[in-house]
């Protein structure tokens, strides 16, 4: 049971995805292209139904590394520094990825909590995910919750991407969509 109902209410009311254009509905708008290898990034219609029926598009990668990012300024999003330092609410991230059955690929993600000088305070960077060629297409959700990260968090840097492993011309690499970064109320705060 929560001890601070005011904080709980505030966080529930403000809870939203802080990433812009997470499903590719507006092309590559709002994303910073970090690497655009092979034939580069593109947006395509989802071929395998996503668990979230509102997802109709995804970002597709090519045969050399493709990575894109967003830098979230927490103050601009309404989370002032003293609030973040005092309460350190949970920061939940997730990302969805899938591959094409006929082509192997790899996926990677790195999310950093940054201070005012944009230096990392905490980082989530799991091992790359590899999809083997000729395996069934299945959506995979990558999730992480930042907790007890200490004072000083002012920005969140979200970066993800991948490539195909067959080096085929075109866009046969990993597909990503419905990415999310949100500030969550902790039930036991």
UniProtKB/TrEMBL annotation:
Transmembrane segments: none annotated. It comes from the Eukaryota. GO terms for biological process: ERAD pathway; glycoprotein catabolic process; SCF-dependent proteasomal ubiquitin-dependent protein catabolic process. It holds the Pfam family FBA. SUPFAM superfamilies: Galactose-binding domain-like (SSF49785). SMART domains: FBA. GO terms for cellular component: cytoplasm; SCF ubiquitin ligase complex. GO terms for molecular function: ubiquitin protein ligase activity. Residues 8-185 form the FBA domain. InterPro entries: F-box-assoc_dom (IPR007397), F-box_only (IPR039752), Galactose-bd-like_sf (IPR008979). PANTHER family: F-BOX ONLY PROTEIN 6, F-BOX ONLY PROTEIN 6-LIKE PROTEIN. This is FBA domain-containing protein. The lineage of its organism: Eukaryota, Metazoa, Chordata, Craniata, Vertebrata.
């Amino acid at each position: 049971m929560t001890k601070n109902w005011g904080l709980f209410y505030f966080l529930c009311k403000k809870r939203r995805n802080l990433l812009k254009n997470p499903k590719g509905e507006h092309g590559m708008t709002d994303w910073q292209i970090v690497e655009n290898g092979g034939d580069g990034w593109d947006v395509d219609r989802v071929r395998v139904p996503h668990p979230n029926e509102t997802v109709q598009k995804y970002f597709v990668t090519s045969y050399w590394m493709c990575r894109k990012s967003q830098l979230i300024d927490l103050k601009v999003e309404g989370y002032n520094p003293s609030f973040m330092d005092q309460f350190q609410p949970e920061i939940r991230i997730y990302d969805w990825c899938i591959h094409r059955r006929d082509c192997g690929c790899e996926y990677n993600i790195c999310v950093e909590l940054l201070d005012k000088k944009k230096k990392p305070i905490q980082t989530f960077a799991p091992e790359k995910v590899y999809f083997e060629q000729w395996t069934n297409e299945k959506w995979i959700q990558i999730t992480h919750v930042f907790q007890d990260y200490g004072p000083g968090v002012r920005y969140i840097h979200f970066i993800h991407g991948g490539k195909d492993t067959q080096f085929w011309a075109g866009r046969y690499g990993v597909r990503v969509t419905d990415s999310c970064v949100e500030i969550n109320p902790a039930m036991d705060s």
